[in-house]
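Appendix C reproduces, verbatim, an entry submitted by the partner laboratory led by Prof. M.T., so that reviewers can inspect both the input and the predicted structure.
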Amino acid sequence: MANTAVQPPVISPVSILTLVTAPFRYLGRMMIVMAEANSRQHEVQRLMALSDEQLAKRGLKRDEIVRYVFRSTLFV
C-alpha cells in the first residue's frame, strides 16, 4: 500500500500583491487613455478649424482628419 501526501498550494506574496494592485493599475491605464483621447480631440478640433486650402497644404482632406489624428490607435 502506498502513502501519498497532498500539500496545499503555496500562494506566493507576488500573486497576492498583483491581485491587490490590479485595480490601481487598471485605473492608471484608464487615466492615460482618457488623457490621450482628450489631446487627440483637441487636435481634431484644431484641424477642423483650418480652411480647406490649409488642409490641402498639409496633404489632408476634411473627411480624413479623424483617421489622421487617431492613426496610431485605429487599425483601419
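The CA atoms of residues 44 and 66 lie 6 Å apart. Additional entries are available on request from the coordinating office.
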